[in-house]
UniProtKB/TrEMBL annotation:
Gene for this chain: mnmE
Organism of provenance: Tahibacter harae
Principal subcellular localisation of the protein: cytoplasm
Binding site for K(+): 226, 245, 247, 250
Domain TrmE-type G intervals: 216-371
Keywords recorded for this protein, A-Z: Cytoplasm, GTP-binding, Hydrolase, Magnesium, Metal-binding, Nucleotide-binding, Potassium, tRNA processing
Residues the record lists as binding (6S)-5-formyl-5,6,7,8-tetrahydrofolate: 24, 81, 120, 448
Name assigned to this protein: tRNA modification GTPase MnmE
Length: 448
């Protein structure tokens, strides 16, 4: 397919003036286009200094021309890269020239899509390119690079192989019905099923961590009005974005702030006070606050020494899917020391948003949560799409286990494993619909 593909072209560097700009061309006519521009056949993987001219022979710019013949190119097709001064006008003229010579402007993500279709990258790796480009922290960039290198895909493929082995093993037994029941009772089968389940749950938790590394940690700050939520957000963000006021119940809406803690991205959300209220606007704010809490990676429940026992009762039932940290604020008032302790109800940190005492304890707690307990060395990036697919795999695996153990139904179990296999294949793109591919690649930028 690669030989006959339409030739596409796009400016690969970011829009705007820059020292250098790169135009990329891929497809069947790329080599002919390069030959015309250079006036002779380019040597593969050599930097040719070239005078780029328009159809009338007028100079567009001088720059470098590089030719990557198929299949050893990013897309797996003939690729040409043209480097000029990074002037948007120059790059536009050159793009126009290349299109006169037979190329057409590329759609968003089309280069990566071709790389995927030509087997240069799997889907998770292609997504990692987009995530690398969009990364907002050093940790996110390193994690995306590991996924691009195939760290995540390798884990998925290993699990897929084990899953297929297991299915084949069960299907072989189904073909001999007289032995089936005996076979299904064998401990060997149970062991293999358990091994695959364990492997999956490890991968699922690492994938969740990969999403946190890529998207950042979602931290929701909740508590009674005047507990000091906005002050805490401001202290962490070290800038006055939230409006701090001594009047109770004024932070009715949600307020978001992205901050970086030693290379880790955190999205902080300040919520309206969680308390009973008859005010309609405030009730809406509280509804949204509870919603935020449900999807939080970390909930910071802010209180102070004076209201601690009372607030624990109020905050106790507030739902959170993630980790809860109890923040005992305003220690400057009680004159106590900052500290971190583990209590029956969870981790508690005593600090002062006003003086900043104890903030370092909170920062290091958040950092270790972002890293999933230990340092994020070796961690790969992932997307929510991957987590959802793995959760479906887990559900099919659980159903397969139930079919085997409770029902001795080998046929049903094999069917569940087939579903699991298909859902797992969606991660790397082995089994994926055109709709899914379209949705993924259209979110890329043009020129990628
Ligand atoms: P929120 O309603 O929970 O967002 O609370 P605010 O951040 O708006 O703070 C309410 C009041 O408590 C303000 O007057 C703050 O200055 C004060 N406050 C917040 N944190 C501290 C603290 O650590 N120490 C003292 N003394 N006052 C604080
Ligand atoms: Zn507030």
């Amino acid at each position: 397919m690669s030989k006959n593909a339409e030739t596409i072209a796009a400016i690969a560097t970011a829009p705007g003036a820059a020292g250098i700009g790169v135009l990329r061309v891929s497809g069947a006519d790329a080599t002919a286009i390069a030959t015309t521009l250079l006036g002779r056949t380019p040597q593969p993987r050599h930097a040719h200094y070239c005078a780029f001219r328009d159809a009338a022979g007028d100079l567009i710019d001088r720059g470098l021309l590089l030719h990557f013949p198929l299949p050893n190119s990013f897309t797996g097709e003939d690729v040409v890269e043209l480097q000029t001064h990074g002037a948007p006008v120059v790059l536009d003229l050159l793009l126009r020239r290349v299109c006169e010579l037979g190329a057409r402007p590329a759609r968003a993500g089309e280069f990566s899509e071709r790389a995927f279709l030509n087997g240069k990258l799997d889907l998770a790796q292609a997504e990692a390119i987009a995530d690398l480009i969009a990364s907002q922290s050093e940790t996110a960039a390193r994690a995306a690079l590991r996924s691009l290198d195939g760290a995540f895909s390798a884990r998925v493929r290993k699990l897929l192989r084990n899953l297929i082995d297991l299915r084949v093993y069960i299907e072989a037994a189904i073909d001999f019905p007289e032995d089936e029941i005996d076979f299904l009772a064998e401990p060997e089968l149970r062991n293999r099923l358990d091994a695959v389940s364990d492997e999956l749950s490890t991968l699922l938790s690492e994938t969740r961590r990969g999403v946190r590394l890529a998207d950042g940690l979602h931290v929701v700050i909740a508590g009674r009005p005047n507990a000091g939520k906005s002050s805490l957000l401001n202290a962490l963000a070290a800038q006055d974005r939230a409006i701090v006021t001594p009047v109770a119940g004024t932070t009715r809406d949600l307020l978001r702030e992205n901050i970086q803690l030693d290379g880790v991205l955190l999205t902080l959300v300040d919520t309206a006070g969680l308390r009973d209220s008859t005010d309609v606007v405030e009730r809406e704010g509280m509804r949204r606050a509870r919603q935020e809490l449900e999807r939080a990676d970390v909930a910071l429940l802010v209180t102070d020494a004076e209201h601690l026992s009372e607030d624990l009762k109020l905050l106790g039932p507030a739902q959170s899917g993630g980790t809860r940290l109890l923040i005992c604020n305003k220690i400057d008032l009680s004159g106590t020391e900052p500290q971190r302790r583990e209590e029956a109800s969870g981790i508690r940190i005593d600090l002062s948003a006003r003086t900043g005492a104890g903030l370092d304890l909170l920062r290091s707690e958040l950092k270790s949560l972002a890293h999933g307990g230990d340092a994020a060395t070796g961690a790969f990036s992932a997307r929510t799409r991957h987590v959802l697919a793995l959760e479906r795999v887990a559900a099919h695996l659980a159903a397969a286990e139930f079919a085997l153990v409770a029902q001795q139904a080998g046929e049903l179990a094999a069917e569940e494993l087939r579903h699991a296999q298909r859902d797992l294949g969606e991660l790397t793109g082995e089994f994926s619909s055109d709709d899914l591919l379209g949705a993924i690649f259209s979110n890329f930028c043009i020129g990628k």
